[in-house]
Amino acid sequence: MARSSQQDDLLMGDDITAAFLSEEDEVQVDNSSEPQRTPEAEEWDDESPVAGQLAVDVYETKEKLIVKGRVAGVNKSDLDVSISDNTLTIRGTLNAGNEDGVENYFLQECYWGEFSRSIVLPVPVKEDEIEAVLKDGVLTVGFAKLKQDTVKKIQVM
Fold it and tell me: Is the pTM of this model over 0.70?
């Protein structure tokens, strides 16, 4: 059976809107070329600096929990690593260096400035047995894991 060309036509423009909206729904179409500003975008307009978030890998071996973060370009003296209540916090500053004389950026993708990351550790660790090493731009924090009994029976009385 042959199909008519009308059946093959896709819904276009207002037909799509009508297909998905009830009569009570109101659609406002703005055909202006000006980009619309959202309240979220306006929050970024103030000049207050926003700290970046450090990307990390968190994994475990048989004896240790390991947290790794790429901090290339950060000096040891600009890193603050702390733990409290099973939460690891890493803070630091990425310094762009000397930018005197820069008149215009053509492309700026690198994040410069303060960054931080707090991670609730997924397994219990010995907070007094922590090793932090910065090597080749990678911060590696290793924790000795607390031994946990796999199953502890509780007698019901």
Answer: no
